[in-house]
Design a protein that fits this description.
- This protein is an alpha/beta fold.
- Among the domains are: about 5-90, Alpha-helical ferredoxin (Fumarate Reductase Iron-sulfur Protein, Chain B, domain 2, Orthogonal Bundle); about 290-405, Rossmann fold (3-Layer(aba) Sandwich), CATH 3.40.50.11810.
- The chain has helices at about 5, 20-25, 30-45, 50-55, 65-70, 75-90, 95-105, 110-120, 125-135, 140-145, 180, 185-195, 210-215, 220-235, 245-255, 255-260, 260-270, 275-285, 300-305, 310-320, 340-345, 345-365, 375-385, 395-405; strands spanning about 160, 170-175, 200, 240-245, 270-275, 295-300, 325-330, 370, 395.
- The strands form two sheets. It has a five-stranded mixed sheet with strand order 1-3-2-4-5.
- Helix 22 packs across helix 23 (about 375-385).
- It is globular and about 65 Å long.
- Bound molecules: iron/sulfur cluster (SF4) (2 copies).
- The site of one iron/sulfur cluster has 14 residues, from helix 2, helix 3 and helix 5.
- One iron/sulfur cluster binds next to helix 3 and helix 5.
Length: about 400
């Protein structure tokens, strides 16, 4: 924990009302200011207690406090450093340790996730039926069962998707771990949209997880290893820009130079990371948009809005589709509770935030929810499902654009 970053906090409290855990529980130590105070105590020599670790674990890492802070406190760096300290110094209960081991030996590895596809496809209904029973045994297992999406057929993407018409750019594309295995249709739509907008899209098969899940949980070693592998994969592919369609992955890749240091920081700086909406907005449209008669509620993923400052670009891209209207979700800046692996590791708080978000999404009366992060999509879908009633479809910005560019009658 960097004492200089801690000292930047002037304890003004402007961040408090934006912090989801402070809003839920009203506890100072579950606010950004309180957590920074605890970091200062630890740096000053106070040993890390289980209570302190609990307050750090309860932080979603949503970065709403970074947006709200008038003093520019780098809470993002602070909480990442703190989580790494917690992982090194805090002895977790055996059940918590085992759960974390399962999560981090599974999720960052696409091949291992792939092995889950068959059981998930066979038992979508059964999973949801057993979730309430699992709740009594272990809330995290129940959360896993409730969150798992209905997995579509695998989509094999080629190494290169050629630009349609005149080539305007060549970009790499991150396929990701959870996005690639559970939402392959989003990656396929992303590649098509980029190609229709005049990009050659290079998709190196040797890429894997970018390290975001590990970084956000303090597993530094694993995060560094995965980050280096991702950089090397795109270097070999010969691209200097990588387009990313998952908010958490994009924000992590933009931090690579800061996380890695030394030679790897230089190599990271040579490759620019751009979120899909950010990239398309800067590139400008050339492909004709066909009408889509629907209203969409746009969900701000925290790692897009707070961590990358990308709010207007996806809204502008969506609103430019003839016939489509964008509706705002109340409390848009408040996290849905997904937050990487938070909804598995802190299921009760995540559920509360998910239910709150679902209520506000439904209040928009929109036909479709648009979310640019696979974790948010799973979290809000599960919360909407818990309410019963007709399901509200959820799609990625790329899928809505793809449907419009291809002249489809609706978003598949
Ligand atoms: S990252 Fe989010 S949950 Fe954590 S302290 Fe900041 S606002 Fe609160
Ligand atoms: S983090 Fe920023 S907004 Fe929050 S108390 Fe410190 S200085 Fe104020």
């Amino acid at each position: 924990m960097d004492p200089e970053l801690i000292a930047d906090c002037v304890h003004c409290g402007f961040c408090l009302p934006t912090c989801p855990t402070y809003v839920l529980w009203g506890e100072e130590m579950d606010s950004p200011r309180g957590r920074i105070h605890l970091m200062g105590q630890h740096v000053g020599g106070t040993p890390l207690t289980p209570e302190m670790a609990g307050h750090f674990d309860a932080c979603l890492g949503c970065m709403a406090c970074v947006t709200a802070c008038p003093s520019g406190v780098r809470y993002d760096r602070l909480i990442e450093q703190t989580r790494a300290v917690v992982e090194r110094e805090h002895v977790r209960e055996p059940a918590d340790r085992a759960l974390r081991e399962i999560v981090f030996q599974l999720f960052p590895y696409p091949r291992r996730l792939r092995a889950l596809r068959l059981p998930l496809r066979l038992s979508a209904g059964a999973r949801r039926r057993i979730a309430p029973r699992l709740e009594r045994i272990n809330p995290s297992l129940a959360a896993m069962a409730g969150l798992a999406p209905d997995v579509p057929d695998r989509v094999r993407l080629p190494r290169r998707v050629r630009a349609v018409g005149r080539r305007r750019a060549t970009v790499g594309m991150l396929t990701g771990c959870v996005q690639g295995e559970f939402f392959p249709q989003v990656n396929a739509a992303t590649a098509r949209v980029l190609a229709m907008e005049g990009c050659d899209v290079v998709i190196p098969p040797s890429q894997g997880c970018c390290g975001a899940l590990s970084l956000h949980a303090g597993r530094e070693e694993q995060a560094v290893r995965l980050a280096r592998r991702t950089i090397a994969a795109f270097e070999r592919a010969g691209v200097d820009t990588v387009v990313v369609n998952a908010a958490g992955c994009g924000s992590t890749m933009k931090q690579y130079a800061e996380i890695l240091g030394g030679e790897w920081a230089e190599r990271a700086r040579a490759i620019r990371t751009a979120d899909l909406a950010e990239y398309l907005a800067a590139l400008g449209p050339v492909a004709p948009r066909h009408p889509l008669r629907l209203s969409v509620a746009y969900h701000d993923a925290c790692h897009l809005a707070h961590a990358q400052g990308i709010r207007s670009e996806p809204r502008t891209l969506l609103a430019a589709i003839p016939g489509l209207t964008v509706r705002e979700v109340a409390e848009a800046a408040v996290c849905c509770g997904s937050a990487g692996t938070y909804n598995l590791l802190q299921p009760e708080a995540a559920r509360e935030l998910g239910d709150r978000k679902a209520e506000r999404v439904l209040a928009t009366g929109a036909d479709l929810l648009v979310s640019a992060n696979p974790g948010c999509t799973m979290q809000i879908t599960a919360a909407l499902r818990r309410r019963g009633g007709p399901e509200l479809p959820v799609a990625h910005t790329a899928q809505v654009l793809d449907a419009s560019l291809r002249g489809l009658a609706k978003v598949p």
